[in-house]
Amino acid sequence: MDMLEVINTLNYGLLAELEVGHHLYWQLGNLKVHGQVFLTSWFVIALLVIVSVLATRNVQRVPSGMQNLMEYALEFIRDLAKNQIGEKEYRPWVPFIGTLFLFIFVSNWSGALVPWKLIELPAGELAAPTSDINTTVALALLSSLAYFYAGLSKRGLGYFAKYVEPTPILLPINILEDFTKPLSLSFRLFGNILADELVVAVFVLLVPLFIPLPVMILGLFTSAIQALIFATLAAAYIGEAMEGHGGEHHE
């Protein structure tokens, strides 16, 4: 009996079979979308909105509870953006960097804490939004658009001079770098979160009580690190685009 047969044998009641690459599709006119990504993304967005409303509905001069948590998160994001983009330029980018970090952080933690893949659907499987390559590529492309916009808005057409610096011979390599940045961002996040979800789901199926807990705790740590890496690199790329070639910001 191979591993797939063992997993199927241990499949009880409402627990779905552990499958990879099977999706719940919604047909919207001529457009086919991954329904499970929308479902879990809406869950993450709703959770963030609820926490934000609870934290700001009765703002106190001396913060406590949820307000204290959100102010700590805001201060952390401000420091991250300031360190990567620079003291003078970071403020307009705090909402973008903060949105990236919080959405990825909560999405990753949902994958580490909730065994999405074991919830039965008519077709396909649930998963954390960031364990789907479409989500991570979209976030990476948004980051690329952001640093192009930052460079052009700060330096105008002079931004493109970076492609021939320090010598025009490096033009192909500098152009290739713009393609490798989103690829690196998207595949790093996708691979780590998908692997963590699969490990947790397999352990929950095989030994559903206490053994998965250390793996889930480790997953929480690595998920937080992945969110921090993504947001830090996105901010660094934006700072680098505004600073120009040879600036203080590096990957």
TrEMBL record:
Q: How does it sit in the membrane?
A: Multi-pass membrane protein
The record's similarity note reads: Belongs to the ATPase A chain family.
Q: Does the keyword Ion transport apply?
A: yes
Q: Which UniProt keywords apply?
A: ATP synthesis, CF(0), Hydrogen ion transport, Ion transport, Membrane, Thylakoid, Transmembrane, Transmembrane helix, Transport
Q: Which residues cross the membrane?
A: 37-56, 93-113, 133-152, 189-211, 217-238
Summarizing the function annotation, the protein's role is:
Key component of the proton channel; it plays a direct role in the translocation of protons across the membrane.
Matching NCBIfam families: ATP_synt_6_or_A (TIGR01131)
Where in or outside the cell it occurs: the entry states: Cell membrane; Cellular thylakoid membrane; Membrane
The organism is Oxynema aestuarii AP17
User: What is the protein's name according to its record?
Assistant: ATP synthase subunit a
